[in-house]
Amino acid sequence: MAGNEAARRRHLNQDSEGEESVSAPPEAWKIRYEKSWLHRRCSSLLHRDKQARKAGQLFSGLLAMNVVFLGCAFICSMIFNRVAITLRDVRIFLSILKILSLCWVIYYLLWTSRRPQAVLYRDSHAGPVWVQGSLMLFGTCTVLLNVFRIGYDISRKHCKSQLEILFPCIDIVFICIQTYLLWHHCKDCTQVQHNRTRCGLMLTLATDLLLWLLAVTNDSVHREIEVALQKSKTLLCLCPNTTACHVFQKGYLLLYPFDPEYCLIGSSMLYVMWKNVGRHIPPHQVIHAKPKFKLHGVLFGLVLGISAMLLGICIFLVYQIQVTSSAPREAFVLYYSYYVVLLPVMSVGAVAGTVIHGLEVRELDTVKNPTRSLDVILLMGAALGQIGVSYFSIVAIVATNPGDLVDRLILTYAISLIIQHITQNVFIIEGIHRQPLLEDPGDSPVQAHTQDSGPCSEEMATSCTSQQPTLPPGNKETEAKEGEKRDDCDPRRVYPLEISQEIRRVSQAYIHTYGHLNWKRKALKEISIFLILCNIILWIMPTFGMHPTFENGLEKSFYGYSTWFAIVNFGLPLGVFYRMHSVGGLLEVFVSS
Asked: For residue 285, what pLDDT is reported?
């Protein structure tokens, strides 16, 4: 009977739980069954949450895609048929998008972000300091650009409509409110009103992309006007002979490159916010401390980078003078020679840094986050602009088989530019995917040395006490000598010997502070700061009007004016954005080294 009872229990356990459990009481069956039901219920809800998130991202992405395609159709129609679709029609369309985006931004700031438990998590990787600083800088310059544009339009009111002034005013309001949103809420992981927030972010992102596209095409229109000014001045709405109008015109042309850069930065930050909607960040993924930017000990890379910047600025000034004179060939030789020397050095530095990354034992940052993914996409995508233009130049030069010095320099420049983009991308991507090394501030050798920085340190105090003879008290001569000894060790009295010792001690502390880093980290910091400064000067030169790729005439004669104009105007803005984005990536590599 006992054997039959045990067999019956085993049979019941197998039927109810699907596994053999002889000794489990009926209460355990119930608890195990409830846990299994709860687990299945939570898994189902989690699966539904993922499905809802994917559906919301798909719907908002389709909304942005349709808005961008419609805007591209407007802008392309303006380019190819200026009679049917004018620049004024495009600006009216973009102003409507700006107003709709502003309505959502204000709604998010005043209602969504203030709801209970609206933002439970914040992405520590989103919106780093260099991105927020660039956003504020370019946003301020874009606001000033619109101020100059208002003054320029008012100065030409005899041939301009009063409606033209309304467009830059709307743009100023849009930039200020969007900059406030991105400055304060770029790290938000919004947990309420998911679909509404995603659609608003995608609408604003699409507006920024269309503003960037219009800025690029408008730059080409300005170049066509400059060409037309050399031929005819009767068909254009020119600036009258007033000082104010010329000041507004020069300010507008000087600040114009910051407009497309601001649009690209805003688009990237809005994309990260869109990816973070509804995102839950586990506690172990939160970064509680980040390494700080310290320039101590960096010498060779800093000196080489500053030298490259100063030389580049001199070449930029000489180029601007010579290209407008009767000696443009010398300007092209100077420009391409500078690049032919600098780009290989940058490539060698990037390759050396990549090799050091391979030798260095460091944990990899394997946590998936939208900021890291976007950094890689932007680096690879923006590099395609200059790489594409370089390949077109190589084909044109090889096909024509010229033997001129300028043509050989252009060929070398194009090949060097491709290699430099590839090697620098590999170096940056390897660097930003490594865990930073956080130093303990208590172990810093600077503190130990600064504590001994007084004129009468422990060593001097020891020497002072050891040099004092033991004389019997009560003697006036003895008291006078002891007083002189005490005056020698008085911290308020500083002597030349003590000054030199203090300088030597501070120098040793400075060297020791940097000396605790191993040679790999030193080399990575030197390479990073050198590449940062080089990318800054390579960003300045094309941003402020240095475009020999279009002005040298070789590729233009090979492909034709319109085709080469379109290629350059596609690749040049991406190349400018690549340099700026590379500076941010290299800063992260420098800080984490």
From this structure: 58
